[in-house]
Amino acid sequence: MALSNRLQNLPPHFFTLLLNKIEKAMDEGRDVINLGRGNPDQPTPPHIIKALQEAVEDPATHGYSPFRGTLALKQAVAEYYQREYDVTIDPETEVAVLGGTKIGVVELPLAIMNEGDLLLLPDPGYPDYLSGVSLAGIRYDTMPLRKENEFLPDYDKLTDVQKKDAKLMYLNYPSNPTGVTATPEFYEKTVAFAKENQIAVLQDFAYGGIGFEGQKPISFLQTEGAKEVGIEMLSLSKMYNMAGWRVGFAVGNSEIIEALNVLQDHLFTSIFPAVQRAAIEALTGPQQCVEELVALYESRLTVLLTECERIGWDVTAPTGSFFAWLPVPEGFTSETFADLLLDKADVAVSPGNGFGVHGEGYIRVGLLESEERLQEAIRRIEKLGLFK
User: Fold this and answer.
1) Strand pairing partners for 324?
2) What are phi and psi of 121, to 5 degrees?
3) pLDDT digits (tens, 9 = 90+) for 330-377
């Protein structure tokens, strides 16, 4: 049976191709240090697991969830935003429950765009944004994220045609892959730009709980007027080590939230109710686990930066997420350097060009191995003699 044109037109899945390379090396019995992944390496905190266990034993959780998620969960999201960001959210009209924010970023164009409409995407950016482009049959242009502009899009560089045609734009801070966080001033510019050009905004806040040097990443919704133009998507995957649980939320503009909810009415029956109860515990229960997780990533980051400096690898420290964005040595592309590290040092990284044209010249390194393994990875790279 032939695949539909819709599936045939999907872009190659970057992470699947990368994983295949790594698995092939591991199948050969090699001790690969995998710094290319984005899957948290720590377990879900015990109090969240206990909440799930108790919920599973309650027969009331064994039936269908309300299609749009339980009101209790949406109230927990609103409570979280009030506590963490001093942002008031209406749980009934300004929250959409998602089976992970990957679903949200892919389905949003289907909910609020028509075929041929233009979406503005960050470059480099999360590769799965392109899946939504293909499935919705829309067009896209990129907003280059350059080091000289602190890896923030420069709206002044967009053409008049792009500003006129664009219906939606994506942002992602803390950024995957660059590890950069956004400033209040940038979000103020974003709201003004979006209003002036009638462009809706999605701020992908998947790494929202992870910031370094005591600086907590800010929410887009803290910006005056943000809810008039857009939404934010928050994930439990990274903050609470719940990647496999598949829980996320879209929060903000009520019209966009309603569009997502209508689409999801036809696609899903929300999330297993027991998981929703556990998500409530994550959002409203003790938050020490998040503080400890951030401290762990910051300690690993310190080791990585110290080791890179020791071998002469000039890198810039990320301010959020659990990724570092490292320049490749002269004479290599992102892909040839990543292949060299895997083939000659048994160190797996993500080549920057997999995140877009403007990711060329970088690799993404995850802080998802122990400090000892990070040290060992840099020692292996040092033996290649590429740095002075």
Assistant:
1) 365
2) -120, 145
3) 999 999 999 999 999 999 999 999 999 999 999 999 999 999 999 999
For residue 94, what are the CA distances in angstroms to 88, 122, 173, 228, 300? 10, 25, 21, 12, 37
Q: What is the DSSP string of 325-383?
A: EEEPPTT--HHHHHHHHHHHH-EE-EEGGGG-GGGTTEEEEES-S-HHHHHHHHHHHHT
Helix axes 334-345, 14-27, angle to 10 degrees: 20
pTM assigned to the model: 0.94
The secondary structure element, H or E, covering residue 78 is helix 71-85
Give all strands (DSSP E) within the chain, no chain letters: 33-34, 95-98, 118-123, 139-144, 166-172, 200-205, 230-235, 248-252, 323-327, 347-348, 350-351, 362-366
* Rounded-to-integer distance, Cα 388 and Cα 371, Å: 23
Averaged pLDDT score across all residues of the chain: 96
**pLDDT tens string 236-252:** 999 999 999 999 999 99
Tell me the average pLDDT across 171-186: 97
Tokens of 9: 């037109």
Nearest to 277 by CA among 96, 42, 62, 43: 62
Band (pLDDT 50/70/90 cuts) for residue 1 is confident
User: Looking at the predicted structure, is the pLDDT value of residue 316 above 90?
Assistant: yes
Contacts 24+ apart (CB under 8 A), 194-198: 194/169, 194/229, 194/230, 195/225, 195/228, 195/229, 197/163, 197/164, 197/166
Would you tell me how many other CB atoms lie within 10 Å of the CB of residue 152?
A: 22
- Please state, in angstroms and as integers, the Cα–Cα distance from residue 198 to each residue in 41, 186, 344, following that order: 41, 18, 50
Angle at 194 between CA 258 and CA 76, to 5 degrees: 40
Q: Which residue has the tokens 């990543």?
A: 338
